[in-house]
Amino acid sequence: MRFFPILLAASLLLAAPASAHDYQAGELHIIHPWARATPPGAPAGGGFVTIVNNGGADDRLLGVASPIAGRAELHSMEVTDGIMKMRPVPDGISIPAGQTVALEPGGYHIMFLDLTGPIEEGARVPLTLTFEKAGAVEVEMAVAPPGAPASAAGHDHGEAR
Amino acid sequence: MRPRIVALVAGGAFALAATLTAFTMLVGSWAPQNGVRTTGVAAVGGPFTLTDETGRQVTEAELLGRPSVIFFGFTYCPDVCPTTLYEMSNLMERLGPKADRMNWVFVSVDWERDGPEEMRAYLQAFDERIRGFTGTKEQIDAITSAYKVFYERVPTGEGEGDYTINHTASVFLMDGKGGFVGTLGYGEDADTMLAKLERLAAGG
Fold it and tell me: Signal sequence: where (chain A) (predicted)?
């Protein structure tokens, strides 16, 4: 990820929504929202995004919505002692001032339920992220293959820590 | 509703106990106060009766004679299950023809929502050699108990179907006689996993 500082610097100069698939909402830099393509008939899907808070005040991701899903929830996931544990985070996810928070495979994810149809690889899917301070932000998710790990999502700059 | 909650709690407690036992054995250490003795061979595996993705009944006998790679999950799983099945598909491709001489099985612990039809549709996205087994609650409890797999339902809302499932994310490697060989850990390096599968394919 040695190019990341350059990419970050370059992307910060762009107006929102930037062409390199990132978005600026006030002091929040929203990088590479993406979803996994779902297997045919899959009832649920997962989405991911990286959020950088360049401001001096904490913000909070309160909720998410997408026309592809009847419901979308924020979940945490961890594997401890070989056991996968997942739980909803109804109070949202804190985006502290000056910090980067990644919703990525193996960590937080957006859970899409009651899908209206399969999430298809290569498609662009609308997503609304609602923040406590930055308000509602409309973005588009890229769609990676089913089961794609973060590195296969197509945009390296999504791996920022 | 009440008996159901009691059943869930009881099931959860049982699964937790089973997992603790399994974990103790898998790690190879043991806690004397629990009276668990290590024998050198973990008692993971055993008889089961389930239904495959075509609706046909299957038992442990069907897997004998070839090494097996078994993963427990569910189709509503947004992260670990598709990731694992995707990795498994990649490893099968790297194994080449050897993968043809092994059993690849995805067992759903979601006895309420997953049936043969759901499994058949879901598995279309992965290597076609991966089979999908489902069963009744009793059948799933039996195989998870035999394989020392932990699973518990976690409510996510008020609705009847609003739940997710915490479960053992390791992949079980079994030899052609149904004996436990080892596991592939979640997040383990792909080359390490491939080496383990090569050894399994070679007969141990």
Answer: 1-20
Say what the pLDDT of residue B4 is.
53
Q: Which residues contact A31 (CB under 8 A, 6 or more apart)?
A: A11, A21, A22, A49, A50, A51, A52, A157, A158, A160
State the maximum Cα–Cα separation within chain B, in Å, rounded to a whole number. Answer: 52
Q: Which whole-number Å values give the CA distances from B52 to A31, B64, B86, B98, B139, in the listed order?
A: 41, 16, 20, 22, 13
Task: For residue B157, list chain A residues with Cβ-Cβ distance below 8 A.
Answer: 88
Indicate the pLDDT class of residue B33, thresholds 50, 70 and 90: very low
What topology is assigned to A4-149 in CATH? Answer: Immunoglobulin-like (2.60.40)
For strand A28-36 and strand A135-144, is the pairing parallel, antiparallel, or unpaired? parallel
Residue of A nearest to B168 (CA): A83
Q: Tokens 């979940």 appear where?
A: A75
Q: Please answer yes or no on whether B78 and A88 come within 8 Å at the CB atom.
A: no
Please name each of the domains of chain B with its CATH number. 2-201 (3.40.30.10)
Interchain CB contact of B63 with A (< 8 Å): no
Which helix or strand (DSSP H or E) is residue B98 part of? none
pLDDT at B30: 39
